[in-house]
UniProtKB/TrEMBL annotation:
It comes from Ophiocordyceps unilateralis (Zombie-ant fungus). InterPro entries: Kinase-like_dom_sf. It comes from the Eukaryota. SUPFAM superfamilies: Protein kinase-like (PK-like) (SSF56112). This is Protein kinase domain-containing protein.
């Protein structure tokens, strides 16, 4: 199977590139030196995209492992006129979003450490504005002397659930649950993609913090999808709480949103 273009085998403990070229081609990195021994501690929840367990690699601290149902990209739909329409693939969307968020955080750290660098944003009212805001985090924009006439500084990077990278998991190693929890899978492969997150114990939710997260992602070029009650409860089950789930937002470079609707020309 060909490795998808939105992941890389580079370890997640390496430095993060923040050029505009790399923002336009984000790749989620692999977890650093994972142990072959996995201790399955607890089933946390499941949903349309996959299933989540609390696990431990070797002697490390517990983490949350999100295992995706579909290992291969779904076949495209045929629309009137014979055109093809690429279908939603949860693993792709989540990897791209996480890789972009990682670059945003790295860019903010670089700007804080260098007085010659500055990140300048504007209030986005279109898809093009959102992309322009995302570009503001790139090396080229941070070092540019040209600034928008109406601008604002980016908010503090939010305390969101940390991502440690992607990995693979054999289907036979996934614990069997009673009653069964399963969804459509690719029968011609015997493994699944997984993303490893910081494990966040259930806690009381602070709506002000949640709103700050939403504001941050709005300013940094994401279109936020509305949450259903089922999705919200799933987030609580998996320990994400109001820390915005990576599958519930879309970068305007890759995904068309309802609010930002202008085309993107790299």
């Amino acid at each position: 199977m060909v490795t998808p273009q939105f992941i890389t085998e580079d370890a997640s403990d390496r430095s993060v590139s923040t050029s505009w070229k790399d923002f336009k081609s984000p790749k989620l990195r692999q977890i650093s030196q994972p142990s072959n021994r996995i201790e399955w501690l607890e089933y946390l929840g499941s949903g349309e995209d996959g299933i989540v367990f609390k696990v431990r690699f070797g002697q490390e601290q517990p983490v949350a492992m999100k295992i995706f149902w579909l290992t291969q990209r779904p076949k495209p739909d045929i629309v009137p006129g014979g055109r093809t329409l690429r279908r939603y693939w949860a693993f792709e969307k989540e990897c791209i979003n996480l890789a972009i968020i990682e670059k945003i955080e790295a860019a903010m750290q670089k700007a804080e450490a260098d007085p010659n660098q500055e990140i300048v944003l504007t209030i986005p009212t279109s898809r093009q504005d959102a992309i322009r805001n995302l570009r503001a985090f790139s090396d080229e924009a941070r070092l540019s002397p040209i600034r928008p006439q109406k601008s604002l500084c980016p908010p503090t990077f939010p305390n969101i659930t940390a991502c440690f990278g992607w990995t693979k998991i054999k289907r036979r190693d996934i614990p069997r649950l009673r009653p069964p929890v399963w969804n459509d899978v690719d029968d011609d492969v015997d493994w699944h993609w997984a993303i490893i997150y910081e494990f966040v114990p259930p806690m009381e939710q602070d709506l002000k913090i949640g709103q700050a997260h939403l504001d941050f992602f709005y300013l940094t070029g994401f279109s936020l999808e509305p949450f259903s009650m089922e999705a919200f409860l799933e987030m609580l089950q998996t320990g994400l709480g109001l820390r915005v789930a990576s599958g519930q937002k879309e970068s305007m470079i890759y995904f068309e949103g309802d609010f930002f609707n202008r085309g993107f020309c790299p």
